[in-house]
Design goal:
The structure is a homodimer.
Chain A (H helix, E strand, L loop, with lengths): L7 E11 L3 E9 L5 E9 L3 E8 L3 E9 L4 E5 L2 E3 L6 H13 L1 E2 L2 E11 L3 E15 L11 E7 H9 L6 H13 L5
Parallel strand pairs in A: 4-10
Antiparallel strand pairs in A: 1-2, 2-3, 4-7, 5-6, 5-11, 8-10, 9-10
Chain lengths: 185, 185
Amino acid sequence: MDKVETWQVVNRRLLVDRSPYARIFEHDVIMPGGETIHDWIDVELPPFAMVFALCEDGTIPFVRQYRQAALAYLLELPAGHLDDDEDPLVGAKRELREETGLEASDWTFLGRYVMDANRGCGWAYTYLARGACQVAAPNHGDVGVMSVHLLTLDETYKLWSSGGFHSGPTSLCIGLALNVLGRIV
Amino acid sequence: MDKVETWQVVNRRLLVDRSPYARIFEHDVIMPGGETIHDWIDVELPPFAMVFALCEDGTIPFVRQYRQAALAYLLELPAGHLDDDEDPLVGAKRELREETGLEASDWTFLGRYVMDANRGCGWAYTYLARGACQVAAPNHGDVGVMSVHLLTLDETYKLWSSGGFHSGPTSLCIGLALNVLGRIV
């Protein structure tokens, strides 16, 4: 293994503040060899929880909504930003209930992942939730029209393996969950 | 399916310009119902290609480098930004050769994915490359110390399924590639 030599951040400047949605920072970095990189952009987006929920009837709930970065409607796993210092599992349960009206009995953590290793762009906390049941109607407070769509495991697998889920975090979480479920061959 | 009603972007402003690495925009959005969202942040990062390369000896090359957003050294699949209008497959081959010195004979596209469906943060073009062979020494021009590490399929699978790859795009691409290789059960 290489010697662990970290980068030293200096002159950190806040360029754009749209808290709590986004903050853009810029800083200089002094590298282990002494070289300095100027004007390094750091994109601070909130951490979020994402849930692959397997219902007792074998279906998986997805949410469909217009997504500005894709200029299209996307089918995605239920997900949402964590509140300040919120436990990621608590946030995952909250988002699943808000977006789909489901609660689940059996939760498995699938890992935490940074969306851009250079810039940040938020950390995803990914979960598999088994034994999901409808307990309420969806009650999301997000902007725009959002609808819930139920796919079977087969439909989910086929769409995922053909590259049909264009949200990176969604496709990441589906792969991890299908693996735990022993569903990928 | 819902009626396809897109959002209308108005008053687009460039807030931060660090081309070609990052541009931060802000705009207002008029939604289908007429509601306006002000000051929507859009993070434009370059598209990138990422490669899960399977060598003829059964190993997979990873690159290890310090990553500012994780404040740690991360093990990631070879990847890099696409040049202007560069074909993603051409970019994937270039990045694999630059970062590892490998060339591969058999390429499979695994899909394109946006890292943040709200903000953007770059699109990943993911590939599986089989029949990879060493043809040169690595010759990367990136900043900092980068080293190549070879893992077996078993090692890759174990680390991936335990959440050990903290880069979102890397874990996404590993799952898609292991599925095509029939390696996940």
